[in-house]
Amino acid sequence: MKFEIKNFGLYGTEQSTVSADFLNLVALDYSCRKYNWEIKPHFHGNLYQFFFIESGSGTLIINEKMKKFSGQNIIIMPENNLHGFKFSDDIKGYTLSVSSAIIDKITSHDKDLLYEISRVRLLNMNNNFDEFNDAMDSIRRMIKELNLQAEKEALFLETLLLLLLIKIFRMTIESEKEYIASTRELAYYKDFIKMIKRVVPTNKSIEDFTKDLGISKTHLNRVCQTITGESTKQVISNYLINEAMILMAHTDMTISEIAYQLEFKDVSYFCRFYKKQTGISPAKFREKNQHLEQNHHVVALNY
């Protein structure tokens, strides 16, 4: 049995589907001030977001885990990832929101580029001033083009966006050089993630994945540790937790129905698994999320 997951706007409020040509750039201090610098956990079904933080500090909340940042940072937030933010009131920077349709179109001939921007990333750029400033030059050029409304604007913006994504891609590759021993390891990891997304991994053993990959259990664990800093088992658990959070936050499914959807053998086991991973029960998470929704105002998508 499949359940429909609703689409949500930029701040987690229910909205209609993002248009295929949606592209929006806005200053962080302008967009976040009205929410007292705190954005509740939410997800976007068909929207990528890129946060270019020039100064200030904050906390990225991803799957109930918190990652602090300060100074110059770039945050990549692909579609279908539950996330929220707490910003300092002196935050400066920009949020670039782009429809999945545009991303798919401009990366159609480069799967490596699409893969790199389809992972949640927090890139600390405090020691990479030149690269960060180069990315900000692209952002400022896009803002100028949006304000001009000149001929062939869409094509020009897509070109600027592609160049910006390539710059970000190079930054992600550079940040991983000290961790990734070979391109083959990265290829194994990519294939592993594709397998997890293709099937509900709850009842699949790690050996099932390694057999399909053609490597040993120890090898796959080393690959996951190298690239993510976490074990194979934890990578799978993180995926299941993210899926469970999305279903609890943005559908009317019961906890039992969610456990069934994710193919847990019973609801009790699902609840124990969820609490072990996050520190709170599924019911407590849903109660907490509902309380947050009651205390936030609705905002239009094109704010």
TrEMBL record:
A family per Pfam: AraC_binding
Organism: Arcicella aurantiaca
Annotated HTH araC/xylS-type domain residues: 190-288
Stated name of the protein: AraC family transcriptional activator of pobA
GO MF assignments: DNA-binding transcription factor activity; sequence-specific DNA binding
Highest taxon in the source lineage: Bacteria
Keyword Lipid biosynthesis: no
This protein's UniProt keywords: DNA-binding, Transcription, Transcription regulation
SMART domains for this protein: HTH_ARAC
